[in-house]
Amino acid sequence: MSITKPSWLPPVATLGPLIALLLAVIFFATQSDRFLSVQNFSLILQQVMVVGLIAIGQTLIILTAGIDLACGAVMALGGIVMTKLAVDSGMNAYLAIVCGLLVCMAFGLVNGLLVTRIRLPSFIVTLGTLNIAFAFTQLYSGAQTITGLPPAMTFFGNTFRLGNAEINYGSLLMLALYLFMWWGLRETQPGRHVYAVGNNPEATRLTGIATDRVLLGVYVTAGLFYGIASLLSVARTGVGDPNAGQTENLSAITAVVLGGTSLFGGRGMILGSLLGALIVGVFRNGLTLMGVASVYQVLITGILVILAVTTDQLSHKGAH
Amino acid sequence: MDTPNQTPALVMEARGLVKRYGQVTALDGSDFELRAGEIMAVIGDNGAGKSSLIKALSGATIPDEGEIRLDGKVIHFKSPIDARREGIETVYQDLAVAPAMTIAENLFMGREIIKTGWLSQLLRVVDKKQMLEQSIARMNELKVGIRSMTQAVETLSGGQRQCVAVARSAAFARHVVILDEPTAALGVKEGNMVLELIRRVRDKGLPVILISHNMPHVFEVADRIHVARLGKRAALLNPKKISMSDTVAVMTGAMSPQDIPAECLAH
Question: Do B100 and A267 touch (CB under 8 A)?
Fold first, then answer.
């Protein structure tokens, strides 16, 4: 038997993002003495929870070699649906939340059906649904922010103290969902089929796996995660914001790509996306503490994405 | 067929298969037969109806006319999945494996073993340990010399990858293994490794249908050769008697099937 790497060690692909995150932390620690504190880290965690949750759904789709440009827009719609139903229509808060989740899943279903039945590229499909979701959000809300939310909707924005850290329930939920999905993708049959479909769809189909069902499941599940993200976004801001999700849309894709998931599908680890979201969060937070104008944060995020995609492309070429 | 009790039983048989695509007749009354424990090579020029025949046998297309029998029973495949259910496994050229996944995962793709226990069954938790152990056992049985089943398929050479694909089909087939150009694009050593494996699959008792353009490979392993030409079976040849150049002549139409010496025909 040859000596192989123990399976509990993360693959090299996840070490890259981890090292990048550590380097960023060290860099900002030398630039600002407020950066390296428990309070600041719990703040970063709160800031990334929405992007982090969207990135779970986005990772699933990118693992199947697709992409979802509508993720942030669908999240915004979900937030508006749940808040408006609860505040303006007087619906029970929990029922309103379920309705919001269902709307996000319905968008996932539409995306998935167009991708599997009509064989449209996910890029084009979600470019369309991005605009549709945005328009629905504006029309339904009348472009007005919805305030006066019932407490059940803001629960995940509440914090509890743990020593010096102020941790909110939303970021705990995000971490728990990451762990669950990490396990699910590794250890369950549907999870392995997601990787197989992304890796070689034709070979997967010929082994008898219903690849269209796998894809449809991925898009609907991604919708569910956008729905949960909208609940967290609503909880964190305390309002239903029709303009939510606009930065999160691309930040989530950035997080996934930075986390080492290949845009060619079938390769990557979902915990990488969490690291990717944290990298984005650390850069935003660190640059703000350094007093760098926010336009430079956008600039640096753009450079990071191109670096990550270049690495993906080069390693992909190396594999063939 | 003078001594029927010595001839192994027919596992698969097709009579008068016809397949038309618009104006083009891909199969024009083609016959086919496969005996237990043999390697039947299928050769033919491009457009001879070779791939249409294989598609019909593997369930990838539905023939317009004719019948296919498996163990004497008439069957109607509507998809490759139907054929698989009947124990016919096909290895498609270039489409066999998921490169980033491990060998064990590739062997069990679509047939993952699920852990016992209601929660594991509900969440469909795969039993990686079982699958790994069975992979090792099956690869050892076929003497495929790959050291670790947990390495990604993309770390293997082309020949080893093909061996994984062939071993997968052999491990799960109950009736027939169909191999579409398994040695294409392989070097001499790698090609021989795959041929060696194909022989072992036959010796395990599984009949093999081998589609190949590579005449030396066909002559090395085939027990009989089915020559497809103009949508029909032009001849059934005995590779131990006929020369390679005569075989090519029959295949291309330079030699009429009537001119083949009787001892070169397979029965």
Answer: yes
